[in-house]
Amino acid sequence: MLQARALSIGHRGRVLARGLDLALQPGRILCLLGPNGGGKTTLLRTLLGLHPPLAGEVLLDGAPLHRLPPRAIARRVAYVPQSAPPAFAYSVADTVAMGRAARLGLFAAPGPADCAAAQAALERLGIAPLAARPVTELSGGERQLVLIARALAQEAAALVLDEPAASLDFGNQGRVLAQLRALARQGLAVLMTTHHPDHALLLGDAALLLHGGALHGPAPPAALLTPARLHAAYGVPAVVGELGGRTVCAPVIGEG
Fold first, then answer.
1. Dihedral-angle region of residue 163 (phi above 0 means left; psi in -120 to 50 means alpha; beta otherwise)
2. What are residue 158's DSSP bridge partners?
3. 3-state secondary structure 103-128
4. What average pLDDT does the segment 95-116 reach?
5. Which of 153-157, 172-176, 220-224 has the lowest mean pLDDT?
6. Is 100 within 8 Å of 149 (Cβ atoms)?
7. Which residues pair with 216 in a beta bridge?
8. pTM
9. Which residues lie closer than 8 Å to 253 by C-beta, 6 or more apart?
10. Does position 184 have pLDDT exceeding 60, yes or no?
11. CATH for 2-251?
12. Rounded-to-integer distance, Cα 75 and Cα 127, Å
């Protein structure tokens, strides 16, 4: 599906990381962690063809990504960026329907099947009551759910998400993580970045840790996210242990 080989990433001549290898697999969730500024978002954007690689290659279904038109990429891979304040007051329904753009002809309007796909995505994430609301009037968490619904309406085989739970409250984090697990069980390949090792331990089939210009993993999250490796990546001590039958992680905060 989506694969990187010996990939170097960066921008304006600055290399953030090199020699990166990874592959998305249908039905599995791959969680990408790492400190701020380490290149996680740049890696996602390079995998999507939005940034050119500095070296190496990205393949989509075995074809070099740079040879594929954007519409062909969008039909196979859906992207959920980090939530940001919207510039235009489109309705939630119209915003989600924009996920159908790659499946429409030039200047074509969404048809009944496209509207049904958008409505199904709204209902799946529990935000159908927001359909008529302008996105400019939503909270950050609500906007993030709208972006995920837009990606679901795209009906791609792979889903790439940049910190999908970053702006969500505790309840909505649980709902989004549950939806991502359900999508993987239906056969989608999922790649998500997160700043929460707990999310990777709870959800991920495999994890990657990007720091110091190198990619560690993929490996089972519990094997990769050790206290020593987390300390090296984030610069703070961490504790990893069992609680209620699952592995959890927390930073160690010293007195004073």
1. left
2. 77, 189
3. HCCCCCCCCHHHHHHHHHHHHHCCCH
4. 83
5. 172-176
6. no
7. 209
8. 0.89
9. none
10. yes
11. 3.40.50.300
12. 24
